[in-house]
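In the current project phase, work has continued on tokenised descriptions of protein folds. One protein thus recorded appears below exactly as we store it.

——
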Amino acid sequence: MNSWKIYGLTVVTLFLKMFAAVLVQGYGRFKHRGFANPEDAAMFDKLFGAKPNAARQSDLVDRAQSVLRNDGENIPIFLFMAMAYIQLGCWPGGRVFTLCISLRKKFMQFLCHVLPV
């Protein structure tokens, strides 16, 4: 397979992983109606009605937020280094191996952050 196709699949896969983290975060916020900012909670209450005993913010939301922060710091650097690896014409077999191992690591990290211990 062409190296740029593999790179494109990597980008799409990482996008879907970050989108999954956003969905988990949104699910946690809407299920418990807990928001970090009071204005967000007020807007939600105005639109959908106040929920009694609404929590401040669930632990699931905090864990999903930590995944998004980590991804925001690491994914751009990872994609830049993968692009440089391809552009420099480094070992072709290593491209597939390196990108697949890195994706597996990022998904395992996502699961370890989001799933409760």
